[in-house]
UniProtKB/TrEMBL annotation:
Protein name: ABC transporter ATP-binding protein
Gene3D superfamilies: P-loop containing nucleotide triphosphate hydrolases
Keywords attached to this entry: ATP-binding, Nucleotide-binding, Transport
Native source species: Microbulbifer okhotskensis
Domain ABC transporter: 6-233
A single GO cellular-component term on record: transmembrane transporter complex
Length: 233
């Protein structure tokens, strides 16, 4: 098998307070390969959100190695991590995390505007319009997020995550705030993105959607455990 896009070895996360020490993750090993669709499941409080935050460089591990496309990122500063995150990782959140004061167009343009190497306006404008057209939202480009339905907002959130052509797309409970019809539509869109070559890692409580992934991982303790029908990590 080719080298993984993402590789974790011995990842530990400890939260310290004056009263106690909490091990949110303990010795997690994980590799994700180009074109995979990986789903991570587990009960509340098992460490899924902590793992996703570290995967997306929103937080850094207490110990262990984490490489993205061969670059060690576990010991970066927060500002260095933010730069890598903007270029390598796309995020889709349960709560959409769109900015109501900005238009749909400006919301999805944000990742491109924070790049180390600025993208010429004509090039970025072309890319933004193509992405909106891909999800059937070109006619909503000038609208504000609060003028859209939940399903439409999640489509825009997906476009924003993809516009920078990330190496990895992280998806956190993408259907949690949607009804079943819109949830099914969003998951079908994610499935199609994966079929087109996008590498996905998704956290979900819904077993119907978890089973759409090509590989299912389960966290029942602070360590990552494969499903019984899979080989060990």
């Amino acid at each position: 098998m080719s080298k993984p896009i993402l590789h974790m070895a011995g990842i530990t996360k400890v939260f310290n307070t004056e009263e106690m020490e909490t091990h949110a993750l303990r010795g997690v090993d994980l590799s994700i390969y180009l074109g995979e669709f990986v789903s991570i499941c587990g009960p509340s409080g098992c460490g899924k959100s902590t793992l996703l935050s570290i995967l997306g460089l929103l937080d850094l591990p207490t110990a262990g190695s984490y490489q993205i496309e061969g670059t060690e990122v576990a010991q970066l500063s927060l500002s260095e991590a933010a730069t890598i995150r903007n270029e390598k990782v796309g995020f889709i959140f349960q709560s959409f995390n769109l900015i109501d004061e900005l238009s749909v167009y400006d919301n999805i343009a944000l990742p491109l505007r924070y790049r180390r190497q600025p993208i010429p306006h004509a090039e970025s404008d072309k890319k933004l319009k193509e992405c909106l057209e891909k999800v059937g939202m070109s006619h909503r480009a000038s609208h504000k997020p609060n003028q859209l339905s939940g399903g439409q907002q999640q489509r825009i959130a997906i476009v924003r995550a993809l516009v920078g052509t990330p190496s990895l797309l992280l998806v956190d409970e993408p259907t949690g705030n949607l009804d079943s019809r819109n949830g099914d539509a969003v998951m079908e869109m994610l499935r199609q993105l994966n079929s087109d070559g996008t590498t996905l890692c998704m956290v979900t409580h819904d077993p119907r959607y978890a089973d759409m992934a090509s590989r299912l991982l389960h966290i029942s303790t602070p360590q990552l455990v494969k499903e019984p029908h899979e080989t060990a990590l």
